[in-house]
Amino acid sequence: xxxxxxxxxxxxxHLHIEGTLEPELMFELAARNKVxxxxxxxxxxxxxxxxxxxxxxxxxxxxxMAVLRTADDFHDLAMAYFRRAHADGVxxxxxxxxxxxxxxxxxxxxxxxxxxxxxxxxxxxxxxxSSALILSFVRDRPADEAMQVLEQANSYLELxxxxxxxSAEQGHPPDKFVEVFARAGDLGLARxxxxxxxxxxxxxxxxxxxxxxxxxxxxxxxxxxxxxVARLRDARMPLTVCPLSNTRLKVVETMDAHPLxxxxxxGLTLTLNSDDPxxxxxxxxxxxxxxxxxxDWDRATFRTLARNAVEAxxxxxxxxxxxxxxxxxx
Length: 330
Ligand code: ADE
Ligand code: ZN
What we know:
Strand content: 5-15%
Helix content: 40-55%
CATH topology: TIM Barrel
Number of domains: 1
Largest sheet: 8 strands, parallel
Shape: globular
Structural class: alpha/beta
Radius of gyration: 18 Å
CATH class: Alpha Beta
CATH superfamily: Metal-dependent hydrolases
Bound molecules: adenine, zinc ion
Order of helices and strands: HEHHHHEHHEHEHEHEHEHHEHHHH
Strand order of the largest sheet: 1-2-3-4-5-6-7-8
């Protein structure tokens, strides 16, 4: 099954590019940019990745990304990830990035977007890996700051495929960003949002009702609300589930206790994703393998999950059709 899952053409819809920063590259970029790190070695960094909730992870995640300063840094980060993903059998990646976290350190939007887009073009050319870019708002910062970033991004909008919403969920409901997401819609951008990772099912309702999202990132707490489950099922709303992230952040205790099988039984439209692979102990293939080990799903189930991702992707139609055909033939 390992080889079959590796060969299955996989699309990743929920990935924070800053969360792909492996400690080795963190040290390389720190030296390049003369940024000091609070760690003596790569092993020390990895030893620090022992999280008890989302916030304990976010603290290290924002600290780690401080080594990113130039367009080349963003390019090198994304290219390193694309190579690893390609080796995992990933054929399409939708990468989120957190502009506010970089702007706060004096790194402009131009180097962020230019570096990431350069890597995306190289991945298409060299690896036959398609991709899309999602500008994500940091929900524990003020909504008017998000609005300013959106206006600032106006001149780059042909380089951005969608907006997202991430970071500390509790106490920062989707409603806080109604105006920002309405403006993003007016600008012709698709919308996605993290909801129901640590936050309550009500946040998933809000993301649907007031942000008009076309996908929910995580959504694992939906099972607490049967009416919500029916709503998500009937709308065929894609949920981008990240199983290894959920166990590492103690959203669920163990893979065996993960709600994925129940979500599947409920008829939800699910996809599997890695979220922040450098921090959570595995990329796309590891997430698929962890589900196989825990749930013993058959090939037809994994094919359905892979199809769901391609169907929900921000991708040109001929490419979508070609990828679906490759999944069916696998
Ligand atoms: N930013 C990076 N990873 C995240 C996650 N799992 N949840 C919310 N915000 C994030
Ligand atoms: Zn995420």
